[in-house]
Amino acid sequence: MSNTVASNKDIILAYVKAIEAQDFKKARQLLADENFVYVGPNMVFDNADQMLTFMFSMAPILKDIDARRIIGEGDEVCMMVDYKTFFEPIGDVRVALWAQIDNGKIQKLEVFYNAAVVENMLSVDGELPFGKK
Fold first, then answer.
1. Of 16, 24, 55, 129, which residue is 20 to 30 A from 30 by alpha carbon distance?
2. Nearest Cα to 112, choosing from 73, 83, 74, 76?
3. pLDDT per residue over 13-70, tens digit each?
4. Which structural domain range is residue 12 located in?
């Protein structure tokens, strides 16, 4: 392991701050180029660029991200945040990010939140996203 827990915490914090600032370039610099994995409650990405494209498509509703707590052990860091939105049906969403850091980059990112809120927001004409009926 080439990172310290403190620097791993700094990496995930920088990533969240880049998302909040809508700085795609900075966020991308913090993600691994190869073998990247994102696992969320209703989607999986194995490509950092595709994941960020999706994340940044939601940027217009982002009001603020409040970091609540960061804990780390070895190459793993968990950060709890409140994702605050301008979109009334969603309001604020409590999110947990669990990251595995390797060589100063986020290699794996698992994200936990109430997926029903996002699915309902993305519902169009009664059709839910992600192939659900």
1. 129
2. 83
3. 999 999 999 999 999 999 999 999 999 988 899 999 999 998 888 788 888 899 999 9
4. 8-122
